[in-house]
């Protein structure tokens, strides 16, 4: 049986995942407006992935016969200075999400809930991948600076995301 503490924390995480979906959607729209079609496509896929993450948490609570609370979501910030600004903010956001996942893992250990701890292992690995990917893009964007040819090459690279 999952504890009320973990149910609350997971419901809070559902909200964070849905907020992530909206944050990446706002970033994608900015990219489309600025002509970065590859980044737009990449961020749309990221937004969809965040929705899937929320749904996995919802399904976990359902399978645990726990209450699922559907949160209200605030409008995300949609003002960005550049493609680099977007990916730096996204990396910062992923680090925030990682810290939340780690808190969930710590709480599942404290509650001696092996099922939840095992379930969260997937998210720990996912966050490692997310941070690594965003960090890679940030490094590439810093290398090219404001060089339009470099930015277009990176935008083209981002268009090739397969997942």
Please give the structural blueprint.
Elements (H helix, E strand, L loop, with lengths): L3 H31 L2 H27 L19 H28 L3 H31 L3 H12 L4
Helix pairs in contact: 1-2, 1-3, 2-5, 3-4, 4-5
Notes on the structure:
- The mean pLDDT is 97.
- With 163 residues, the chain is mainly α.
- It has one domain (4-159): Ferritin (Up-down Bundle), CATH 1.20.1260.
- The chain has helices at 4-34, 37-63, 83-110, 114-144, 148-159.
- Helix 1 runs antiparallel to helix 3 and helix 2 runs parallel beside helix 5.
- 79% of the residues lie in helices and 0% in strands.
- The chain is built from five helices and no strands.
Tell me briefly what this model is.
It contains five helices and no strands. With 163 residues, it is mainly α.
| Mean pLDDT figure | 97
Question: What general outline do the C-alpha atoms trace?
Answer: elongated
**CATH C-level label:** Mainly Alpha
Classified in CATH, the superfamily is Ferritin, core subunit, four-helix bundle
The total of beta strands comes to 0
Main beta-sheet annotation: none
Intertermini distance:
34 Å
What is the chains' assembly state? single chain
Order of helices and strands: HHHHH
Helical element count?
5
Total domains, how many? 1
* Helical/strand content category: mainly alpha
Output the radius of gyration. Answer: 17 Å
- Find the CATH topology: Ferritin
How much of the residues is beta strand, in percent? under 5%
């Amino acid at each position: 049986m999952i504890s009320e503490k973990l149910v609350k924390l997971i419901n809070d995480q559902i909200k964070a995942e849905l907020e992530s979906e909206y944050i990446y959607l706002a970033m994608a729209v900015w990219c489309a407006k600025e002509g970065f079609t590859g980044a737009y496509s990449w961020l749309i896929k990221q937004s969809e992935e965040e929705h899937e993450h929320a749904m996995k948490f919802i399904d976990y609570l359902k399978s645990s016969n726990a209450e699922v609370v559907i949160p209200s979501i605030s409008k995300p910030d949609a003002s960005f200075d550049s493609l680099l600004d977007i990916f730096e903010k996204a990396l910062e956001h992923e680090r925030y999400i990682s810290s939340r996942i780690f808190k969930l893992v710590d709480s599942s250990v404290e509650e001696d809930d092996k099922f939840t701890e095992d379930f969260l292992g997937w998210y720990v690995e996912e966050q490692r991948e997310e941070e690594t990917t965003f960090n890679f893009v940030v490094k590439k964007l810093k290398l090219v600076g404001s060089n339009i040819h470099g930015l277009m090459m990176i935008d083209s690279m981002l268009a090739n995301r397969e997942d």
